[in-house]
Specification:
mainly beta; Agglutinin, subunit A; Hepatocyte Growth Factor; 3 domains; six-stranded antiparallel β-sheet; four-stranded antiparallel β-sheet; elongated
């Protein structure tokens, strides 16, 4: 092991001999990167080097788009910036990447790969992934890779989610603000409670969720198959989401912002402006729990919040002024007697949040209904997987939170527990004339509501 003084001498000498700027994609074990020097990926899509956001006096090693240097997609030392430009990125004698102060030798960041393999090189791949690999190994058996440690951006090929074998959770975190890349309080991660769903949080507060995975997609998300692919893997070893590229002429990234939003952006090759293809804030209904408990948010309605069938506003005066936070309560109390209970089938919705729930992946829908009927606390049920006619059983207990209407997705159903007397009231109100009968049936069909 080299002494600190000899290592510093080696760093300074290597810096002088390496020239002011490099265009290679690989850093060898006897090389360094200092301010003004960069690595460039083989196709010149990405660049790595030192930067100081808005001349803040804080210095970081980052990766950015070669053509858009203002868009930083990864930062090594976002929690431990250098206070001047005298930093150096090097490979230590035991094979770790490290950011050091070239004058004092203080280590500000290390990859901590703990492999103790001196024959290591660092390479910036065309995907934007910075990897440590054995010098003669051209496989993807990397010693370390930046894709395992996301910053605020998800690039194609980067996994967002869990290595269930090791317990590693990869998620993205916003900058503290537009000029400070240290970790902010906005996170976007794949939640592993019941069926997976994406959760956007400010601290511990949920501000958006995608809806649970239903075997095909996340129940509240938009699919852009013609632009990019969504790869979802869920097995005993891994649970992760990944963006794939459909057209090599299109660049895409997913970024979480300090303002509290996450956006999927694309750029056509040769273009100069990014287009937002999807966002956590597509409309007001994406605001988590906007309408309160036991309600549904309908983007195309005015007002956008309505109580679920059989429920009324808990505070009508608040609802009159568009304050829906108190939510809705049942108009008719539920009985535990099974012959006093019916289920209302509501389609085309993002399923309620998984707060108080149970999941049985082997049950049929009929068995799920029977289980819900036997449990007085069960408020609703649904298939957990909609493939091949549906399977699995979700049951919700307590209030139903964050239901959103998607009229174009009628195959997504939830069955809500209702008092049989409540349904009789609907009949008494709407079936006064033959015309009103057909009007009522038509309304139920239009809103995907049927009795079960």
């Amino acid at each position: 092991m080299k002494t600190l003084s000899s290592l510093l001498f080696y760093i300074l000498l290597s810096s002088l001999l390496s020239g002011f700027r490099r265009a290679a994609d690989t850093l060898s074990s006897n090389g360094t990167i200092t301010y003004g020097e960069t690595l460039e990926s083989s196709g010149q899509s990405f660049e790595l080097g030192f930067f100081s956001p808005n001349n803040s006096g804080k210095w970081y090693i980052g990766i950015w788009y070669k053509k858009f240097p203002e868009i930083i997609v990864w930062i090594a030392n976002r929690e431990t910036p250098l206070r001047n430009s005298s930093g150096v990125l090097t490979i230590t004698p035991n094979g770790d990447l490290a950011i050091m102060n070239a004058t004092t030798g203080d280590v500000f960041w290390s990859s901590n790969s703990s492999k103790n393999e001196p024959a290591i090189v660092a390479q910036l791949l065309e995907s934007g992934n910075l990897v440590l690999r054995r010098k003669d190994d051209t496989t993807q058996n990397y010693v370390w890779q930046s894709f395992d440690f996301p910053s605020d951006t998800l690039l194609p090929g980067m996994k967002l989610g869990w290595n269930l074998s090791t317990g590693t959770n990869r998620y993205i975190t916003s900058w503290k603000d537009d000029n400070d890349p240290s970790p902010g309080d906005i996170t976007f991660r794949l939640d592993n409670s019941g069926m997976p769903q994406f959760i956007l949080r400010r601290g511990s507060e949920t501000i958006y969720r995608s809806g649970p995975w239903n075997g095909i997609e996340f129940s509240g998300s938009i699919d852009w198959k013609t632009v990019y692919t969504r790869i979802f893997v869920y097995n005993n070893q891994e649970l992760y989401y990944m963006n794939g590229v459909v057209d090599n002429l299109i660049i895409t990234r997913l970024t979480v912002y300090p303002s509290g939003s996450v956006r999927q952006l694309i750029l056509k090759q040769g273009g100069f402006s990014w287009t937002v293809m999807d966002s956590s804030m597509n409309d007001q209904c994406d605001d988590y729990g906007l309408c309160g408990a036991n309600s549904i948010c309908k983007t195309k309605s005015r007002p956008i919040c309505e109580c679920l069938y059989g429920f009324v506003p808990k505070s009508q005066s608040e609802w009159d002024v568009r304050d829906w936070s108190s939510g809705c309560v049942r108009r008719t109390p539920l009985s535990c007697l099974q012959d006093h209970i019916k289920f209302l089938k509501l389609g085309g919705v993002k399923l309620p949040d998984l707060l108080q729930f149970s999941l049985n992946k082997s049950m049929s829908l009929k068995e799920c209904q029977a289980e819900c009927l036997k449990n007085c606390s069960c408020m609703a049920y649904a298939n957990s997987d909609i493939r091949e006619g549906g399977s699995g059983c979700f049951m919700w207990f307590g209030d139903l939170i964050d239901i959103q209407e998607f009229s174009e997705r009628k195959e997504r159903y939830i069955y809500m527990r209702m008092a049989a007397a409540e349904l009789s009231k609907y009949i008494q109100v709407y079936l006064r004339t033959e015309f009103e009968f057909f009007f009522y049936v038509g309304q139920m069909i239009n809103q995907n509501i049927v009795l079960a």
